[in-house]
Amino acid sequence: MAATLARVDDDPAELIARVAVSRDVDAFRQLYEHFAPRVIAYLRKGGCAPEIAEELTQDVMTKVWDQAARYDATRAQVSTWIYCVARSRMLDRVRATRRPEPDPTDPVWSGAPPAAPDAILAQARDRDRLVRALAALPPEQAEVLRAAYLDGQSLADQAAATGVPLGTVKTRARLALQRLRLLMANLGDAEADHA
Amino acid sequence: MPDPHLPEELLLAYAAGIASEPHALLCAVHLTLCETCRDDLALYEGIGGALLDTTSATGEPGPVAVPAPAATTSPTDGALPDGAETWPRALHPYVRGRRWRWHSPGVHMLTTPLILDEMPVRLFRLAPRHHVPQHTHEGVELTLVLSGGFVDLGQHYQRGDITCRDQDTTHDLVIDDDGECVTLAINEHPLVPLTLAGKLYAALRKP
User: Does B8 touch chain A if contact means CB atoms closer than 8 Å?
Assistant: First the structure.
């Protein structure tokens, strides 16, 4: 149960910084105790056998230790970084799916400035904001996101599994994403006003 | 987000790690060229992080150990086709060693090894001012502009832009007059022609 989990009392980004700068074993242990059980649960739900889930989790947490210095707190929260590493391991090893990735060193890398340039930074600075926003979603919208991310179910899978029309599932996903994007964009504007 | 950006549903699937490889390729190519969608992806991956962080399900972690070496994908051989140096690198492994082939007047086609719903993922190179006759689709057709541009349903699309057309849309398109247009096209099903010219075109377009 959630209540029995180890809490990360310190800011995870601060813990990562301690791992990066001074190879702080205690900081790493806090990260490990918080995230490893969650990564295992994520991989198990994604279809990993228990021993594979454990092996991949060690892999994910070893990467956290090895590459702590490369973590960029202005780009993403720690939980997001770990999520992306775990997702990559699962796709490589379990689903055997290749996932083409955009390459920031690509010579043709380009794009107009984003509409809400402060949104990511604001999100990175306030790790609880997105968690609260998710908790405030109507339950049926939150469930669509949870099933997609944690159970690996496409919107069509969800419609088939629940009997809810696909159009309704898509609308729920769209509304949830709209609400979260709006909240993050507003947060960026609010922080810019205070700057 | 509507045209000319990635459909939300697709970006969500990409962030959640459940997109098909053709769809993931389309995402990677567009994300290389679009800051707006990169910003959205950061948010969508943040959602994954937040869900991971707050999941109530837990597993028993073991002690830290040295991980097994990661699986590597073998690189494909062969030269890149004409024009590929201007395309995002994410696309290169899928076009290496493949050649442009004549397809129909004004149209060349390059077939990638990727297949979605029995339809191969293809690139089209269309001559300036080329007109693609009126047609509709049985399923969704996603088209990404790799170079040049065209007008479809009164809107101009250029490099990086995506159009998403389904069975409720009847459309034709006209390539810009100032140069060739190269597109990456993902069809769930073959297109449905509505005119004689379109029927001839579709017959030629079959893989």
Answer: yes
